[in-house]
């Protein structure tokens, strides 16, 4: 994901699971093999090795996965990356509200916090009835209030 900080282009690397929840986010100035390696190592250390990695067609991913011995697990395709691309939308909406970012550090902090909060409250509304949705939403709000109070 491309993000501008004070007119300079930076890159927000994001790992998204099969349900669209953001697992990991990482900000860099470059979009090369070194940055991809650092991001993938960080994500794999925290969440383990994935069976399948869906990426865009950036060649850095292929080079890093080849070094890690996971080249056969990478998938790239025209619509395979949609889940990750659609997870950018709430982030972009919030970014516009905040009137952009001014430092890499504030972007990194915001990305991490935004991901955890949106994962907590994001309920797949279309997959459940209204009663179940409301019950889950109430439970999420109660848990959130408990976290904020303590």
TrEMBL record:
Signal peptide: none
Positions of the DDE domain: 2-123
Top-level division of the source organism's lineage: Bacteria
Pfam families found in the cross-reference section: DDE_Tnp_IS240 (PF13610)
TM ranges: none
Name of the protein: DDE domain-containing protein
Organism encoding this protein: Jannaschia seosinensis
Lineage of source species: Bacteria, Pseudomonadati, Pseudomonadota, Alphaproteobacteria, Rhodobacterales
């Amino acid at each position: 994901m491309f993000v501008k900080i004070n007119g300079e282009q930076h890159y927000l690397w994001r790992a998204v699971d099969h349900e669209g929840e953001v697992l990991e986010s990482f900000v860099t100035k470059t979009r090369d093999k070194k940055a991809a390696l650092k991001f993938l190592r960080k994500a794999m250390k925290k969440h383990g090795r994935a069976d399948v990695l869906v990426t865009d067609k950036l060649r850095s991913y292929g080079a890093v996965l080849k070094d890690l011995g996971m080249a056969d697990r990478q998938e790239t395709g025209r619509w395979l990356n949609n889940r990750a691309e659609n997870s950018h939308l709430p982030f972009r909406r919030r970014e516009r509200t905040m009137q952009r970012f001014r430092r890499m550090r504030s972007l990194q902090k915001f990305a991490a916090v935004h991901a955890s909060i949106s994962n907590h409250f994001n309920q797949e509304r279309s997959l459940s009835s209204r009663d179940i949705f409301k019950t889950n939403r109430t439970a999420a709000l109660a848990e959130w209030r408990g976290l904020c109070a303590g």
